[in-house]
Write a structure and sequence with these properties.
7 helices, 16 strands, three-stranded antiparallel beta sheet, alpha+beta
């Protein structure tokens, strides 16, 4: 009963965790460090390699407070590949096995595969890329790894055919890929890696971006110019309306005749040409009043038929022509 009670009241110990640095895929001859995390107070930690020989490595925590134990494997060989796990002891019993770690060794098979791009995205509707891993001999397992390097590849995917579909990809996508081949006999042993393939999907062209920016800037400047022109035209129309009203007011106020021009014509009407007056005195006294009236009529006709000639034209006229015209008119009238 006592033993049964003890067994019924027993609580299982927390399981340890395990991980590897720099990764779980290691090239032949490289080193790797495996870490096991356990609860505090344990007396022994064991790293177990699940192979037929049942190989393991033990670690004793210092002071009973250490929670992580390190196991360094200096020179990885094909016999070191496989599954690893951790367990610990608190002095009287062992814990259960926690998570398992699959450790892969590359470079075991010397045949080097080739990695190519079989298809690229076609326009905006299709965003898939197909990569092909090829080898001269038949293989059971094909592996594609993204990023990392040849000694420690990262983000690896295994499958039974050599076509890898990558989706989705977008403009500006850029990654480095490598592929390996393996056999079903031991999936933890891989071939040497292929040459790296840099998959790059071009983004928008820099020249296209420059063109769009330039076009946008030109359109903006044209828009500003149109706004300035509209504002200028509106201002010109407003000022033109004011000028026309001012001109109309001035023309209406001075419509009959400028004061200066009126004074000039009034002076002309009262001025008797000297030659004309001399001609009147030279006419014989026998001429009746009618002929003298015609001589005065000559001056009136001259003023009425003029279309406001400039003052300099009036000043430049010869008084002799005036006398001649008056005599012609008098003679024609006398003959008639």
């Amino acid at each position: 009963m006592g033993l049964g009670s003890v067994l019924l009241g027993f609580e299982p110990s927390p399981q340890p965790s395990i991980w590897a640095v720099p990764g779980t895929v290691i090239s032949t001859g490289s080193a790797v460090t495996i870490f096991c995390r356990t609860p505090p107070g344990v007396t022994n930690v064991r790293l177990q390699h699940h192979v037929l020989s049942g190989k393991w490595y033990d670690c004793t925590p210092q002071g009973g407070t250490q929670e992580v134990c390190e196991f360094s494997l200096k020179n990885m060989m094909h016999i070191d590949a496989g599954i690893y796990s951790c367990k610990y002891s608190n002095g009287y019993q062992w814990s259960g096995i926690g998570d398992k770690l699959e450790l892969v060794v590359t470079g075991v098979y010397k045949e080097k595969p080739s990695l190519t791009v079989d298809s690229r995205p076609q326009g905006f509707s299709e965003r898939n890329v197909t990569l092909g891993c090829y080898t001269r001999h038949s293989s059971d397992i094909f592996i594609l790894c993204r990023d990392g390097n040849a000694s420690f590849p990262l983000n690896c995917l295994q499958q039974g055919h050599n076509k890898f579909f990558i989706s989705p990809v977008s403009p500006g996508y850029k990654r480095t890929y490598r592929c390996f081949v393996s056999s079903k006999v031991n999936a933890f042993l891989w071939s040497v890696p292929s040459d790296p393939l840099e998959l790059s999907i071009p983004g928008p062209s820099v020249s296209l971006i420059v063109v769009w920016v330039t076009v946008s800037a030109v359109c903006f400047l044209i828009f500003l110019l149109l706004i300035c022109l509209c504002h200028h035209c509106a201002k010109c129309k407003a000022s033109s309306g004011e000028t026309r009203s001012q001109v109309k007011y001035k023309s209406s106020s001075s419509a009959p005749m400028d004061t200066e021009e009126k004074i000039k014509y009034d002076e002309l009407e009262h001025i008797q040409p000297e030659n004309c007056s001399q001609a009147d005195t030279q006419v014989s006294a026998a001429e009746d009043t009618k002929e003298v009236t015609y001589a005065q009529l000559c001056q009136e006709i001259f003023l009425e038929n003029m279309d406001s000639p400039p003052s300099n034209t009036l000043q430049g006229m010869s008084t002799q022509t005036c006398v001649y015209a008056m005599l012609r008119l008098s003679q024609e009238e006398s003959q008639s």
